[in-house]
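agent> step 3/5: call structure_predict on target 'Polygalacturonase' (Aegilops tauschii subsp. strangulata).
agent> reason: downstream docking stage needs a structural representation; sequence fetched in step 2, passing through unchanged.
tool.input:
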Amino acid sequence: DVRGLVIRNCTVRGTTNGLRIKTWPGSPPGRASNITFEDIIMADVSNPILIDQRYCPHGRCSDVDKPSRVQISDVTFRRIQGTSSSKVAVQLRCSEEQPCSGVRLDGINLRCGDQPCHAQFANVRGTPALEAQAPSLWVQEAHVLPSDAE
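tool.output (status=ok):
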């Protein structure tokens, strides 16, 4: 399990992934909770904010059809600013079996060139809390579950 992790005061420059939590399909049960990313500057990052519970590099995973069994909860992305090199700046792709819960996006200010940034959510319990949201980020696609979904 991973609990109580804080990443703050960093600059991420010219990378594929910025702030990422990943789990493998078919992974054993576990938890990732109480994780905070704050005061981060992104400079030309392809995936600035990413939760990926279907992580499978190079398509070579034996359990690719099975959902991750890691429960991700209470994750905060606070005061994240800068530029994304892709249109989708925020991706929350959570497990079908263990949807993410308690995800907060607070003070996100990402620019995607001259286009608005997009956000994609899948299998997130309750609507991710969007506070002090920059007008340049809007939800393109969402599969959000009610807060009391089992």
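agent> step 4/5: record observation. The beta strands are 2-13, 17-22, 30-45, 47-52, 70-84, 88-93, 100-111, 117-125, 129-131, 137-145.
agent> proceeding.
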